[in-house]
Each structure stands twice: as structure tokens, then as C-alpha cells.
Amino acid sequence: MAKNRPSHVSRPVYPGGVAAMKKFVAANLKYPPAAIEAKVEGTVIIRYGLNYTGKVTQAKVKKGIGHGCDEEAMRVVKLMKFTVPQSSKKKVRIHQDVNIHFKLPKPKPTPKPKPAPKTSTSITYTQSGSLSGKVVRKKTTDNKPNSGYSYTIEW
């Protein structure tokens, strides 16, 4: 009589799921300088093997884009650690594929230059012997924008 054995092996999972794995890859992936200079973008497909403890034991490039991106993707995959469900105490090696996307970082926008400070209005005070106060306002003719007015106060 046959024993009741499961016909499938439980697959290892990354702690926190796919979203956590994407976050881990994004935090640890460094865009190679050679790829930035060559303006290389694309997807590297890595096939990796997991041992029964969930550690990545081997990794190879299934599809690469070169310029150092393949090596960087392999480095990040080898850092990952998976959780393996131990249902039947079998020590099974599992192979999986992962796609690692390389997209050039967007250039930072150059800050807008600050506008030139507005020129201040000059005020000239002139005092003469009369006590009657008189203010004369004249537009300056410097041919400069925002040159303003000059004021003369006579007494």
C-alpha cells in the first residue's frame, strides 16, 4: 500500500512577499558607472538555485544586457534569503528566475536662477531756508528697468 506523501514540494517565499523583494532589490542595486556612461537600460534575467535552508547557492545570467549590469544583478540576488516551508522534511534544491530591471536615473532638474533683487528707491532730502514744505517727485531717467523715483523734499 502506498504512503500518503504529498506530490508537490512547497516553494520558498521571500519574507514579506514580492513587494518586499522588490524593495530589497531597489535598496541594494547600484547602477554600474559603465552602464550610465553607455546609457544602457533593460532587464537582466537571473536563474538562481536555493538550498533547503533558503540560501541562494548558485546564480547565473539567463539573459543579460552587459556593461556591468549582469554582475550587479547577480550580486544582489546572492544577497537574498528565502523562507522554505518544511512540510515533509525533504531537502530539495529549487531553481527560480528573477527579473531585475535597470532604468537610468532621471537627471536632477537644474534650479532656476533667483531673480535679481529689485533696486531700492533713492530718496534725496534737500533743506532750504523756507518753512513751507514742498515734495517734488521726479521719475529717474536711468533707462534701467525698475529704477524707481527720486524724491526731493524742500523746506
Automatic annotation (TrEMBL):
Top-level taxon in the UniProt lineage: Bacteria
Keywords linked to the UniProt accession: Cell inner membrane, Cell membrane, Membrane, Protein transport, Transmembrane, Transmembrane helix, Transport
InterPro entries: TonB-dependent_transducer (IPR051045), TonB/TolA_C (IPR006260), TonB_C (IPR037682)
Subcellular locations according to the entry: Cell inner membrane
Segments of skewed composition (Polar residues): 119-131, 143-155
Domain TonB C-terminal residue range list: 16-111
Its membrane topology: Single-pass membrane protein
Gene3D superfamilies: 3.30.1150.10
MF-aspect GO terms: energy transducer activity
Protein name stated in the entry: Energy transducer TonB
Organism: Neolewinella aurantiaca
